Amino acid sequence: MSNLLNKTTTQNLAKSETKTIGSDETKKLEMSEARSKKIKHSYDVKDKENALLLKLKDGDVVIEMFEDAAPKHVKRIKELVRQGFYNGLKFHRVIEGFMAQTGCPLGTGTGGSGQKLKAEFNTIAHKRGTVSMARAMDVDSADSQFFICFADAPWLNGQYTVWGQVISGMEHVDNIKKGDGYNGMVNHPDEIVSLQVIADL
Q: Which CATH number fits domain 30-200: 1.10.730.10, 2.40.100.10, 1.20.140.10, 2.120.10.30?
């Protein structure tokens, strides 16, 4: 019997059941253990439990987190990531040559998760690819918002909690849509496609 299907036969085949399920259900679809291991090993990170995969419109970005330097911030970021908090959030404030900021559920820079964190300022410098917490005037007001530096920003050192560093995919961060409004606010901003702990893939 031939393995080839004619046009009429293919038209009568039932659609894959996965095509009609909702996004919440697709998240629950299981991945084979072998494929999961292959994906994890494709990211060269020191500690998969303390590394994130940030999916952007142009590609994947890998962030290593500094658990030793900012343990409370790293713990909270992972909690939010595992809740799916960041998925779909906008890069609401993006300044050419400076940084891209995200993590506000309102998309305005005024919202958060509702849990403020005590500052964990450290000696890690703000340089290209640094991931650091955004905050208000109060040093202990960081919540869920963070920014990624496009370039070195030494004037921020010791004033914001650095908790991570982009180790691959920085070219995709560079392509995040820039703001042209007041204070870098972006019209029709890019979004986080997804953010996951690499150990969970």
A: 2.40.100.10
